[in-house]
Amino acid sequence: YLDKLIDELFLFxxxxxxxxxxxxxxxxxxxxxxxxCEELQFDLEEQGIELTSNFHTVNKxxxxxxxxxxxxxxxxxxxxxxxxYMNRSSxxxxxxxxERETTVDIEIRDNGKGIPAEYLPFIFDRFYRGDPSRCSSxxxxxxxxxxxxxxxxxxxxxxxxxxxxxxxxxxxxxxxxITKGSEKNSVEE
Length: 189
Known about the structure:
- The protein is an alpha+beta fold.
- Helices cover 36% and strands 27% of the residues.
- It has 5 helices and 9 strands.
- The chain is globular.
């Protein structure tokens, strides 16, 4: 636990100070997410969690400018949180990909216990762990989502969340889409 905490603190510090190099390349996010689901599927099934994907609305390469290793960290952090706060014997996580005019949108939705409305605005803050009574049983450093936010923002994207207690949580990520003839650098609000 202590080693993981030190690693996360070191990573967060480097990200926060813009001292962590990113290796950006054109990534077909559809293929990337299909491969990610395949990798995660077995581990999640062993924990009694069903992972489904909804990519059927997208049937072509969707290109973003991204760092494969850092994107994996974002997806892993969000999935780990979904698993950590899953309170159902039949847990479900759904990965949804959609295309907008200028963005590629990823949604990771679970059917866990959800996040109380008063804690939701702070979940991407460093060291924020919500309800202190829940923290001792679930562990965590309160850095996973803060790290994810910094990585997404370094990609020119945005990250947000919605949650309903007793129903689940959805994390929304928007990345600028690369289109032929123009390359966007950030998500327009």
